[in-house]
Design a protein that fits this description.
Layout: H1 2-27, E1 75-76, E2 80-82, E3 85-89, H2 90-93, E4 99-103, E5 110-117, E6 120-125, E7 136-139, E8 142-145, E9 151-152, E10 159-160, E11 173-175, E12 179-183, H3 184-195
Parallel strand pairs: 1-4
Antiparallel strand pairs: 2-3, 3-12, 4-5, 5-6, 7-8, 8-9, 9-10, 11-12
The chain binds zinc ion (2 copies).
Amino acid sequence: MFKRFHFMLLALSLLALTTACSAADAAVQPAPPDTTPEAPRTDPDPSLTPPAPTAPNDDTLDQEGLSPRTTPGHVWAEPIIEGDTVTILLSVARMADHVHFEVPTDGDPASFVGYFVGNAFLVRPCVCPTCGAETVDWESGALACGTCPAMYDAVSGAGVGGAISYPSGLISNRIALDTISMSRLDLIAAYERTVAGEGVPSGGDDVCPVLGCC
Ligand SMILES: [Zn+2]
Ligand SMILES: [Zn+2]
């Protein structure tokens, strides 16, 4: 009797073990095959493609009397020089709020900046009376040096804040129907007087009160 019971216990144990193994087998079934999603398209989006570069529009540079030195915001006139007369075209002078031009000399060309104040056309050498650099340009209704901080009154040429003023006097010019004419000797004389430092300190006896150019 005891022996039979023992056999039955053994059989039950084997049965339990077999069941457990089956369950374990079920638990380690291989995973379903890997289903990698389709790779995203790599074709470039046409809407993101930058436009092809376009050639600069140089139509304006074909205008008569306009120098190829012209850059955005800085019109350069190509003067016509006949004897002592230097002529620039009114259409070029009026293209922007100021115009640059050069006059040949025995040495380097002398450069000038011209601009309208009302109906009057005013011309100043681009030489800075304060520091001597040839970097004076029109800036927001006044003349400003690009090398030192000096600024000048557009009409009187007086230095602002202690800068040395332009020499007294204006370069005369004649405005005709479509041209502006000046005397080459007048232009060069004004240029040389400015280079020579004939301007006077705008601040009275105080020669270098602000700029430290000397
Ligand atoms: Zn300019
Ligand atoms: Zn200067």
